[in-house]
Amino acid sequence: MSKLVIVGTVAFDAIETPFGKTDKILGGAATFIGLAASHFNIDAAAVSIVGGDFPQKYLDLLSNKNIDISGIEIVKEGKTFFWSGRYHNDMNSRDTLVTELNTLADFNPVVPENYRNAEIVMLGNLHPIVQSSVLDQMVNKPKLVILDTMNFWMDSALDDLHNVMKRVDVITINDEEARQLTGEYSLVVAARKIHAMGPKYVVIKKGEHGALLFHNDEVFYAPALPLEEVFDPTGAGDTFAGGFAGYIAKTGDTSFENMKNAVIFGSTLASFCVEKFGTKRMENLENEEVHKRLLQFKQLTQFDIKLA
Known about the structure:
single chain; alpha/beta; 25% strand
């Protein structure tokens, strides 16, 4: 089993969808990644920053899921990162209403000493310079570095993003971001261009239409499970990344064949995340439920065909 370092936001979200709205609730990339990765009983640590307004019960939630929180800095006089957004009726597009960086504006991540030899590093969506600074702290080159990013950094810090991409093995982005990053509409061509930027593996998330995994000339497609109810897509991409990273850390196998399984686990966990607002569904998710849904995925994707 490999150690996993998770870097990202631990935050407050306020969300509005066609199915309702919330006041400030628990959110953040590192939170969703950690909750997903906790299903693999691995040695994982979260590296982030919060303010004095962040409730102890949320830190306890992560601790109780066996996530080491010694790398979460608490700035007593500061305020926690806050994001508010409103989703459109199709649930695939959203408008950002409020972004308050607060303590995140001066975040200098410090990886705990006993995790600087971690084999797997999951760089959640943050400024590329912050992501690079984490890699600078690792005493050995990690076995696998996974990077998540977004269009905001493509708009505002493209050179820094290109620099960190040269240092990672896997990138996870959505289809819109892949097209923006490369200027290519075809996701196959886009993945090839992204390979040339550094990552050996490219995961392109397509929301309710599943996910694609590219490696050289090999392609794997995992569908998304058709769901009766989708309440809140916030955190689904991070949950996918957490499931992906957690599975790789658990198995210690970074081959393309094993990454196919990691994609399926990520998709399975993400399918739970969207069923309730924020982290609510992930907080009490049982392994038996995950196993049952994995079997549903298997039935969805396996078939026998007789060629004429």
